[in-house]
Write a structure and sequence with these properties.
The structure holds 3 protein chains of 3 kinds.
Chain A: E1 4-13, E2 16-25, E3 31-35, H1 42-49, E4 57-62, E5 65-66, H2 72-78, E6 79-82, H3 94-99, H4 114-126, H5 142-155, E7 160-164, H6 172-187, E8 191-195, H7 199-205, E9 208-213, E10 216-221, H8 223-226, H9 229-236
Parallel strand pairs in A: 3-8, 3-9, 6-7, 7-8
Antiparallel strand pairs in A: 1-2, 1-4, 4-5, 9-10
Helix pairs in contact in A: 4-5, 5-6
Chain B: E1 7-9, H1 12-21, E2 27-31, E3 50-51, H2 55-61, E4 65-68, H3 74-82, E5 86-89, H4 96-109, H5 113-136, E6 142-146, H6 158-166, E7 169-170, H7 171-174, H8 185-190, E8 195-200, H9 211-214, H10 216-224, E9 227-231, H11 242-260
Parallel strand pairs in B: 1-2, 1-4, 2-3, 4-5, 6-7, 6-8, 8-9
Chain C: H1 2-24, H2 45-79, H3 91-104, H4 114-134, H5 140-163, H6 168-178, H7 187-205, H8 208-213, H9 218-223, H10 228-250, H11 256-264, H12 272-297, H13 306-328
Helix pairs in contact in C: 1-2, 1-12, 2-7, 2-10, 2-11, 2-12, 3-4, 3-5, 3-10, 4-5, 4-10, 7-10, 11-12
Classes of the chains: A alpha/beta, B alpha/beta, C mainly alpha.
Chain lengths: ~260, ~260, ~325
């Protein structure tokens, strides 16, 4: 558990506010899904949560300290962030990509230590990619790549993970796989905040759903409340009689 | 480092000075260009070992004194100094005064002051004879110098000096040009020259960029006016052979005068 | 990381072999026995040639090569682009401009380190200009075009200085200097370049962690605790010192920073941090071998210029590299 909270956070450039007067208490743990139409400010919120952006006004607090006051390394060890664009500049092996997640723990110019290797192995096991360890990133399918990048984030062993649309452009089967991994991670004590675009996935896997539109938080609560019919209509402009139902789909056969 | 007492020179320019001031017994190596057609080195000199501006080569030759052309010393000269090898770099010369200064300086350096004085005296005597020839002529022709690549020489260059010593007027200097500019075809066509002077390079220096020969304007100028050539070896730089170039130009002027029908 | 360690070992061995060859081969063939008289009061000719000519020339070549290889590896890691090379993006040209300007305005004689520092200043200005034009997270196209702009700028100013040269001989001097050469390098040149290049190499080595994290993008790198501002500074400072110091004493030698990292990258599993040391060693090796070739082929009075040789090897390589990266991802 880690105590992340937003205290009256604004973020914007000039007159344009991407995030408006946001108060959030994210200290509860579990898996929180962040949903909203394009341009709602989800990426902005996640970057603020990850300490990649500083609020224009207000504060993002972590365990009683302002995020912007934390030294880079400490912040990196406390929060793992997964960027939306899942590409690697170089065709490294899966193992080496996952190893990048150990950066906040490694001493400069030193090789990977025992703790690092253990964390890497564990992360690969959690994401089911251990048998692909020596394959090159650019030869992987999109689902395998998504899992590799999540393993990279898991390898950092941060108590809080913030992920920006890890399921984007994935087949349904792989979306389910990714969400299942995140759910298991949340169950074993890591707090997960993840932006998703598939509402039924959010409904199925999240303990709590945040609904955003145009920089404002319009709903915050368990899925059956936050994804109720009227919210969905207001925010997304679609009719979902009875609210969003959790997806009934599951992966056939082995994981 | 032990060395012979010989003198080595590293380029054609340095060759000409060394040959003017030192006898065969004192010269241990001449430049790598000494064997080329453009060189004015005497037959016996062409069998000497070759020197060029490279420290390893000069260490191996270990001459008593290495003579460099202007600007050729650089790092090589410093490296020679580190092992106690003596060297001398010629100063940049634009005119006969510069030639005299170099002769004097080099003469002093090799203990050949007497020979230097004699060379200077000969130079002065030949210049005087040229003056006499000039005075004997009716007028001073307008001379245009064109190199194979179309470069010309204005005031303050040794080409200008040679032309004037020979009794001509350098049209470029007359037009207010200084130094070594490239000519443009318009200027060349527009300028009124009685004689066009070219300098040919034989072997080794063949210029692929033979502007002057191919461009129509230049060809026109070369065909229309009487022209003469001075071998490039005479005036690679302002050296002891500059007077030879001047004399050759004077011969060309005499021929022109005869053609004009005095 | 065993494979990388053995690669480095192999490279060190290769460098040592090339060094021995370089010392023994030349105008005069010298046996290494001549090294024994190195500190003798009255050395033989062979020892003299070895001590005053070949040894400093070898060391300078190693320094210049290591600087170019290391800078190339770090730049490619930082810009996430295999086409980044100090020559292609105009850093060598800027360093050359700095040095030529110092020669032209007679600043080089002001104090001992004036010329190499002018080269470093030029290189620093070039890198800063490159960053300014290319901006953050530049794509391949933007980077190369920005490099073209920097090259054009440096080239134009150098051409101006050449245009204003007082006579054809001064002009030729600048032109030949720009072609790049280790000819007649002495301990003086080594003493100039070594502190600058070695400092640059040390700074470049610290950039490993940052450029490795950059593989997944700027946001990911920052989330991993990398200070991008500081990383940018180390890349600028490291490149300026490592490349500028070398160019100032040896002229513009290109393509080493392009060829070496590219050839070695697959051997280190494409990991940017692991590439830095091998690239330095590989660069040192390449320059030493190229210079050996130059010394063997050069005729009396008609020296072959090292920069010309590396360009003749590197330009076709560059063409091939552009084609092959086009096929994979434009």
């Amino acid at each position: 558990m880690s105590g992340l909270s937003f205290e009256r956070v604004d973020f914007g450039y000039g007159d344009r506010l991407l995030l408006r007067r946001t108060w959030l208490d994210l200290s509860g743990g579990g898996l929180t899904a962040l949903v909203g139409p394009n341009g709602a400010g989800k990426s902005t919120l996640l970057k603020l949560a990850g300490g990649l952006l500083n609020p224009t006004s207000g504060r993002v607090m972590l365990d009683g300290r302002s995020l912007s006051d934390l030294p880079d390394r400490e912040r990196a060890r406390a929060i793992g962030y997964l960027a939306p664009d899942g590409r690697s500049a170089w065709p490294m092996t899966v193992r080496n990509i996952v190893a990048l997640g150990r950066a906040p723990w490694r001493k400069p110019l030193r090789d990977l230590g025992e703790a690092d290797t253990a964390a890497i192995d564990r992360a690969m096991a959690q994401t089911g990619i251990s048998d692909m360890a020596e394959r090159r990133f650019n030869t992987l399918s999109s689902g395998e790549r998504a899992r590799t990048l999540i393993a990279r984030t898991l390898a950092g062993q941060a108590p809080l993970m913030v992920l920006d649309e890890p399921t984007a452009a994935l087949d349904v089967k792989h979306q389910l796989g990714v969400m299942a991994i995140l759910q298991k991670a949340a169950a074993s004590g890591t707090q997960v905040i993840v932006a998703v675009h598939a509402l039924d996935m959010a409904a199925r896997f999240a303990d709590r759903v945040l609904v955003m539109k145009r920089g404002e938080m319009l709903a915050d609560g368990p899925p059956d409340e936050a994804l109720a019919e009227d919210v969905v209509r207001d925010v997304f402009g679609v009719r979902a009689p009875g609210g969003i139902a959790p997806t009934p789909l599951s992966v056939d056969g082995r994981d | 480092m032990p060395s012979d007492d010989g003198i080595a020179s590293t380029s054609l320019c340095a060759d000409s000075y060394v040959l003017a001031l030192a006898g065969p017994e004192r010269i241990s190596a001449l430049s790598w260009q000494a064997g080329h057609a453009v060189s004015a080195a005497p037959g016996w000199a062409r069998d000497l070992p070759r020197a060029w501006s490279d420290a390893e080569r000069l260490y191996t030759l270990s001459p008593g004194l290495t003579v460099f052309g202007t600007g050729e010393g650089g790092r090589t000269q410093r490296l020679l100094a580190r092992t106690g090898l003596e060297s001398f770099e010629l100063a940049w010369a634009n005119d006969f005064d510069g030639v005299r200064d170099n002769l004097r300086a080099l003469g002093e350096r090799i203990g050949g002051e007497a020979r230097a004085a004699a060379a200077i005296a000969e130079l002065d005597a030949r210049l005087e004879r040229l003056e006499t020839r000039t005075a004997a002529r009716g007028r001073r022709p307008r001379v245009l110098y064109l190199s194979a690549s179309g470069a010309t020489a204005g005031a303050g260059t040794y080409v200008d000096e040679a032309i004037r010593a020979a009794g001509g007027v350098n049209v470029m200097a007359d037009a207010g040009v200084n130094g070594w500019p490239r000519s443009d075809p318009e200027t060349v066509l527009g300028v009124e020259a009685d004689i066009v002077l070219t300098s040919f390079f034989a072997e080794g220096y063949a210029s692929t960029y033979n502007h002057a020969r191919h461009h129509a304007a230049y060809r026109l100028v070369l065909e229309e006016r009487p022209n003469g050539t001075v071998p490039a070896g005479d005036w690679m730089c302002a050296g002891p052979r500059l007077i030879d170039a001047a004399e050759r130009i004077a011969d060309i002027i005499d021929a022109w005068e005869r053609e004009e029908g005095a | 990381m065993k494979p990388v360690r053995s690669l480095n070992l192999v490279l060190v061995l290769a460098v040592v072999l090339a060094a021995v060859l370089s010392l023994c081969v030349g105008e005069a063939d010298i046996g290494l026995a001549a090294l024994s008289g190195l500190f003798a009061a009255d050395p033989s000719l062979d020892t003299l040639i070895l001590r005053e000519l070949r040894l400093p020339r070898l060391l300078l070549g190693l320094l210049v090569g290591a600087g170019l290889g290391g800078a190339g590896a770090v730049m490619q890691g930082f810009f996430r682009n295999p086409l980044a090379d100090p020559g292609i993006v105009g850093i060598s040209a800027s360093a050359g401009l700095g040095a030529v300007a110092a020669l032209y305005f007679s600043l080089a004689s002001l104090f001992a380190l004036a010329l190499p520092l002018a080269g470093v200043a030029g290189a620093g200005a070039g890198v800063a200009l490159l960053f300014l034009i290319a901006g953050r997270g530049a794509s391949a196209t933007t980077l190369i075009l920005s490099g073209v702009a920097v090259n054009a700028m440096a080239g134009a100013l150098t051409a101006l200085l050449m245009n204003l040269a007082p006579n054809p001989w001064a002009l030729a001097e600048i032109a030949y200097w720009l072609m790049g050469s280790l000819k007649d390098a002495s301990w003086t040149e080594v003493g100039f370049a070594a502190p600058l290049v070695l400092t640059g190499l040390a700074i470049l080595a610290t950039a490993g962690r940052g450029i490795e994290a950059l593989s997944l993008g700027e946001d990911t790198a920052r989330s991993l605790g990398i200070d991008l501002g500081r990383l940018r500074l180390s890349v600028v400072a490291g490149t300026a010192l490592a490349v500028g110091g070398g160019v100032a004493v040896a002229g513009a030698i290109g393509f080493v920073g392009l060829v070496v990292p590219h050839l070695l990258r697959p051997l280190v599993g494409y990991r940017p941090a692991a590439l830095i040391l091998p690239a330095m060693l590989g660069g040192a090796l390449l320059v030493t071998l190229a210079d050996l070739f130059v010394r063997l082929i050069s005729g009396p009075g008609m020296p072959l210029y090292l920069g010309v040789v590396t360009a003749l090897l590197g330009a076709p390589f560059f063409l091939w590299l552009v084609r092959s990266t086009q096929k994979v991802a434009p």
